[in-house]
Every structure is written in C-alpha cells, then in structure tokens.
Amino acid sequence: MNVTLKYFASVREAIGQGGESMDTPATTVQALRDELIARGGAYAEVLAHGRAVRMALDQVVCDGSAVLREGCEVAFFPPVTGG
Amino acid sequence: MSFTVSIQTQDFDVRQELAALRVGDARVGAVCSFLGTVRERNDGSAVASMELEHYPGMTEKSIAAMMDEAQKRFDIYAARVIHRVGLLHPEDQIVFVAVTSAHRGESFQACEFLMDYLKTQAPFWKKEVTPEGARWVDARVSDDQALARWGIQARNSTAP
After folding, report:
1. How far, rounded to the nearest angstrom, does the alpha carbon of residue A77 sit from its chain's CA centroid?
2. Given Cys at both, which of A43, B92, B122, B129 links A39, Cβ 3.0 to 4.6 Å?
3. pLDDT given at position B155
4. Nearest CB neighbour to A81, from listed B57, B61, B124
5. How many domains does chain B have?
6. Which strand (E) or helix (H) includes residue B40?
7. CATH number at residue B35
8. What number of C-beta contacts closer than 8 Å exist between A and B?
C-alpha cells in the first residue's frame, strides 16, 4: 500500500528530507520502521530501536502495533520540546 | 463558549487576547493566563536565538484534544492557546494560555493543566543557537512528572 512519511526536527535533519511517499508491504507502523531501518545509513541510525523516536499515525501518537491503511500518514520524530 | 488555538509566526497582544476571551460573557469571574518567553540561557549556555518547528495539522489536533480534556476536568467557559513557531530571540513571547471560569480555582488549575499537557504532548521542537553551535533542546523528565500530577502518564522524555 502507499503511505506518506513525515519526519521532523532531528529526524528530518538526519534523513535529509521532511517526508516522502512510499509503497510498502508493511501492515504495521513497526514493520514500516523496520523496513526504513533496513535501508541503512541515516535511516538505520536515527530510527534504530532503543533511540527515543516517537511515532504518529494519521496525526495521532501511536505505538508500533498501529495498523497501516492505504493512503495513511506516518510520522517519526524525537521527544517534543514546545511551550 | 470559545476554545481556540493559533499556531503562528507573528507576535500577539496579551491584552487584546484577554479581552477577546472574556468580554461579552458576564458569567466570567476569573481569568487566568500563562505567558512563556524565550530565556537568554538554557542548560548552561547563552541562547542567541531559537527556531521552533512543529507538525502542522497534528499540532492543532493535539491542542484541541487537550482543551476537550480540560473542559471535562474543570468548570471553565473559554480557553485560548497561542504558540509561535519560526525564529525567536530572548525575551520574545513564545506561548500563551488563557482560561476563563466563574471562580479562580478552576481557571488556575485548567491553565496549569493545559501547559503541562502541551509541554509533553504537542508536537513542537526547539533548536537553540548557542556559542557552542546549534542544538536541539532535550525533553525534560520534570515535564513528564508535571503531567503525572494530573493522573496522565507521559513518557515523552524517556527512551525508547
């Protein structure tokens, strides 16, 4: 299925772009993250398990078990620091 | 009844915002507000400027959700949240939260609840420019602890 990816703050800087569109066989956010990690390079480094990475599905914070839908938006970002 | 949020680069006028929130609602007997500004020092370094980034769409949704939660918890009439993004300098206004209610207790509490919630749940990120270079600000454990007082377990600052 096709998903829209968004990256913010230090994750965006490391990957070198704010987002991308991709076709994926993944059905969960965790599987999608693993697929990105498998690309190696900055993806593997910044999305590595154990790193403080927050995830959101369709603009709601989620965990890795969240189920992807056709056309959904998945975001990866560091802990938030507003206010 | 008005619960509104604005994410904007431009500055705002606190006096105007307070008037807009309460004038025309004679039930109001208390207005409580919080104004956050840019400090000249953070974590031991001088801060020349900072760049605030956010997640358009999700930011507004998450703040709307925290206002819904505040309405469930406290007897309040109206609330206003403004958060600036983009380039900011020491002394600049960053964030504004204001709440109205009949009596002071509800608006004091709701104002603090909204700020505690925003600190750990709304997708904003600060990047500071210091003499040692530009750096992303780290999330604080104390902010998670502040939200925990309201019975909400936040894990924003803790890896993974």
Report:
1. 7
2. A43
3. 87
4. B124
5. 1
6. none
7. 3.90.1170.40
8. 81
Tokens of B34: 């919080």
User: Model confidence over B105-154: pLDDT tens digits?
Assistant: 999 999 999 999 999 999 999 999 999 999 999 999 999 999 999 999 98
Q: What is the pLDDT of residue A66?
A: 98
| Contact (CB, 8 A) for B137 and A81 | yes
The span from the CA of B79 to the CA of B30, in Å, is: 12
Count other Cβ atoms within 10 Å, centred on residue B30: 17
- The answer to whether A47 and A37 have CB atoms below 8 angstroms apart is yes
Residue A8 sits at the vertex; the CA angle it makes with B96 and B111, to the nearest 5 degrees, is 20
Distance CA B23, CA B1 (A): 11
> Chain A residues with CB inside 8 Å of B123's CB?
8, 56, 77, 80, 82
Q: What is the mean pLDDT of residues B41-51?
A: 94
Name the pTM for this structure: 0.95
Q: What is the ipTM of this complex?
A: 0.95
Quick one: DSSP state of residue B137?
A: P
CB–CB of A77 and B95 under 8 A? no
Let me know if residue B111 belongs to a domain.
yes
Cα distances from A21 to residues A7, A65, A72, B105, in angstroms, run 12, 21, 10, 48
Residue B34 burial by CB count (10 A; 0-12/13-18/19+): exposed, middle or buried?
middle
Q: Which CATH superfamily groups domain A2-77?
A: Beta-grasp domain (3.10.20.30)
